[in-house]
Write a structure and sequence with these properties.
By secondary structure, the protein is mostly beta strands. It has strands at 9-13, 17-20, 24-33, 38-44, 50-57, 68-73, 79-81, 85-90, 94-99.
C-alpha cells in the first residue's frame, strides 16, 4: 500500500470491533459517550493485536441529558495499521472511525 490515501471509508461501531480487514490509516474518530469516563484503543492485527494509540474519553453528561460528542483528527497521514485495524471501546457508546 502506498502512502497516498485514496478513497476514504468509515466504520461505525457500538461495541468493540473490526474497523478494516486489511491495511489502513486511521484518519479521524468521532465518538458519543453518555456515561463514565472511558477510552478508545486502536489496535493493529485484531482484538489481540498491537496497541497503536489510546484516546481517553471524558465523562458524559447523563444527568443533564447531554452526551459528550467529539471528533479526534489525527495529524499527518494518521495512524498506520499494517495488518488490520480494530477499535476497543471502553465506556463509549458510539464510534465512527474514518480511515483510508
Amino acid at each position: 500500500m502506498s502512502d497516498f490515501i485514496g478513497s476514504v471509508k468509515t466504520t461505525r461501531l457500538t461495541s468493540s470491533g473490526a474497523v478494516s480487514a486489511g491495511p489502513s490509516r486511521i484518519l479521524s474518530i468521532y465518538y458519543v459517550s453518555d456515561g463514565a469516563a472511558g477510552s478508545i484503543t486502536i489496535l493493529d492485527g485484531g482484538s489481540g493485536g498491537t496497541s497503536m494509540a489510546v484516546f481517553d474519553v471524558g465523562i458524559g453528561g447523563t444527568s443533564a441529558g447531554e452526551p459528550v460528542t467529539y471528533q479526534i483528527d489525527l495529524p499527518g497521514q494518521g495512524i498506520r495499521c499494517e495488518t488490520s485495524s480494530y477499535a476497543t471501546l471502553s465506556n463509549v457508546d458510539k464510534v465512527t472511525v474514518i480511515y483510508g
